[in-house]
Amino acid sequence: MGDGCRGRGRPRRDVVDRSISSLPDDLLHVILLRLQSTPDAVRTGVLSRRWRRVWAQVPDLSFDQDYCDHVLRLWSSSILRGIDAVVAAHSAPTLDRLAISVRRSAGDSTPALFAPWLRLASQRLAGELEIRFLPPPAPTALPNRLFRGAPVTIRSGSLERLKLDGGVADGRVTVDAPRLVRLEMSRTRHLDPSKVKGARIAAPELSELIWRNAYHPSRDQIADARRHLRKLEVVPPDYYSLYYSSKFEVPKKMSALFKRFDYVDELSMHMDIPSCDTDEDEVRHDYSLLLGALL
């Protein structure tokens, strides 16, 4: 009787695990992709010996420190060493996406941090690369040296989409990617345009460009790119960056980005209007200067 009841009850967990594990690798990869987190995919290795190798073939590596740092600490006492360990263990011949978002501290050596990630991207990435260095949590004041990004060089014959944020975009950036079609450059919100170190972009197939915050026409060079863009999205520095910099220099610098292209199918510009107690006439005047220079 006991056996009969057990047969009519819920399936035993080990039976379910064996059923899932018997699925083909391609289907298991789809399941792991739905997790949207490489550390979570790594954790499935506890299910069976087979699962220990399945995650390593998924063509997507995604790390978001705010979400999964507790998982990476199982691999290493350091979040960054944990990411490097997972990257080193990954064995898929081609990657569709590599996305890493980590918080940096004052003691981090930026080039040493992302060197192995860029090496992996240059060797195996055939899709999207996104590397973000976030500021330390809830700082009261950030030392200026945190905004001096280290030089970054990205050369890839297969990279199609690239997003650079914060400390990475603030430094000297060199991109040589003949198949790149979409580029997002998001510099630190309060970065003074005069402090821009410059970017040199060689992307003859570029069709979508999103540029946020500071732009310097002589230091930022989109040297090898089409004169016709499908989409151009520009987010000028916020009002306070405009206020504390020269009101005339910021519009002039931003307008140079528009003049780099002859035709744009879709143009988008975002502006941050302050809601604090600021003189309304002054705000209107400053933004009219910016709009007049850009249009």
TrEMBL record:
Q: Where is the F-box domain?
A: 20-58
Q: Name one Pfam family in it.
A: F-box
UniProt-listed Gene3D superfamilies = 1.20.1280.50
Q: Which SUPFAM superfamilies match?
A: F-box domain
List the InterPro entries.
Answer: F-box-like_dom_sf (IPR036047), F-box_dom (IPR001810), FBL15-like (IPR055312)
Q: Tell me where on the tree of life, at the top rank, the source sits.
A: Eukaryota
Supply the name of the protein.
Answer: F-box domain-containing protein
> From which organism does this entry originate?
Digitaria exilis
